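lol ok so funny story. i was supposed to be doing the assay writeup but got distracted and ended up predicting the structure for this chain instead. priorities right. anyway since i did it might as well share w the group, maybe its usefull for someone
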Amino acid sequence: MRILLSLILLGFTALGSTALLAQTPTGDAANGKRLFLRDGCYQCHGYGGQGGAAGARIAAIGLNAQGLIRYVRAPAGQMPAYTAKVVSDQELTDIHAYLQTLPKAKPAKDIPLLNALEKK
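and the output, tada:
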């Protein structure tokens, strides 16, 4: 009886996980690129998400879409908060999908100019 109850609970847990995965919105990278440009994200973070003086590097970030949404709603540092009235969760999910298409930054050791400067 205990084994049967465990199997039933395991089945409900698996079904619940599948339902949660099905509810996770997916992003549209093409729309995300459009929004990234329209909303001016590039002004601080660069066209390639490489970052700059006013914004952090955000290309190929380790945050999932929900993490990005939470950060944009309540950021640390100089970035202003953006409410859902300004940019919706779906729009941020699309921006996240776009950011995931951008290449990761090269390690410093793979950039010849930086290596040449280090040798001086």
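Residues 28-105 form a domain with the Cytochrome Bc1 Complex; Chain D, domain 2 fold (CATH 1.10.760.10). The first helix runs from residue 2 to 23.
back to the writeup now i swear
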